[in-house]
Amino acid sequence: MKKVKWEMKERFIFPAFAGLPIGAETVSVTPRFTEERDDDAVRLTGIYHIAANVSFSEEGNKSEMTEEAILIEDVELDGQTGYFEYAVPLNVDLPAEAGNPLNVAVVSSSFEVDGQGVCGVVWDVECSYKKAVVLEEPVVELKSEQKEKEVVAKAVAVEEATAILNNSTFSDEDEVLSFIFELGDGFSATTFRSNDVFVEREG
User: Fold this and answer.
1) DSSP 3-state assignment of 164?
2) Higher-confidence residue: 192 or 79?
3) Strand 98-113 vs strand 118-131: parallel, antiparallel, or unpaired?
4) Cα atoms found within 13 Å of the Cα of residue 56, Cβ hemisphere only
5) Of 83, 92, 69, which Cα lies nearest the Cα of 10?
C-alpha cells in the first residue's frame, strides 16, 4: 500500500453577538468525495465536512472583518457554546497507478484561536491506495505472436491454393484441347502472288 499525507487549514470568524472564541469542545472533519479515473490520473472531487462545538467568552469579538477568514453567520448558540458546520472543497489528483482499495481519512484535527476573534481548524489527511500493476507489454507481445501466426497461416493457404491451380489436369475426352496439345512447335513460309504480279525477292 502506498500512502500520501497532506495538511489542510481553514480560518473562521464569528459575529460579534456570539462572543470571542476561546476553544473547541469537539472538532470533526470528514472527507466526502467522488472518484473519476482516466489514463492520466485519478481525480477525487468533493468536500471536507467540518463540524465543531466552539466555546465563547462573554467578551466581545475584537477582530475586524478580514478576507483571510470565513464569516460563520449561522451559529447555533447554547449558552457559551456554539455549533457550526462548514464545507471546504476537496480536490485531489493522484497518479494513474492509484488502484483500489483507495481510502482518504482525516487522521487528526485541531482548533486554534488567536485571542482576537479569528480561529482556525487544522486537519491532517492521509490517502492510501494499492498501486495498480500495468500489464501492457505481455499483451503487446501476445498480439505480435498472434499476428505472426496469422501471417504464416495465410502464406500456407496461398501456397496450397497455388498448388491446386498448378495441378489442374485436362481429361482425354476434351478433343479440342487434346488436338492443341498434339500440335508441334514451328512455322512454315509460303509465297503468294498478288493480282498475278510476281514480287521478286531481294538478295
Assistant:
1) helix
2) 79
3) antiparallel
4) 27
5) 69
Residue ranges per domain, the chain? 2-131, 136-182
Q: What does the pLDDT read at residue 141? A: 53
Burial readout 145-181 (b: 16 or more C-beta within 10 A, e: otherwise): eeeeeeeeeeeeeeeeeeeeeeeeeeeeeeeeeeeee
Label each residue of 86-123 as H, E or C. EEEEEEEEEECCEEEEEEEEEEEEEEEECCCCEEEEEE
> Which pLDDT score is estimated for 91?
96
Q: Work out whether strand 70-71 and strand 76-78 pair parallel, antiparallel, or are unpaired.
A: unpaired
- Alpha-carbon gap, residue 111 to 1, rounded angstroms: 31
Number of Cβ within 10 Å of residue 123's Cβ equals: 22
Helices (H), the chain: 136-166, 175-182
pLDDT in tens, 16-54: 888 999 999 999 999 999 999 998 999 999 999 999 999
Quick one: pLDDT at residue 163?
Answer: 36
> 126-152, pLDDT tens digit by residue?
999 998 765 555 555 545 556 556 555
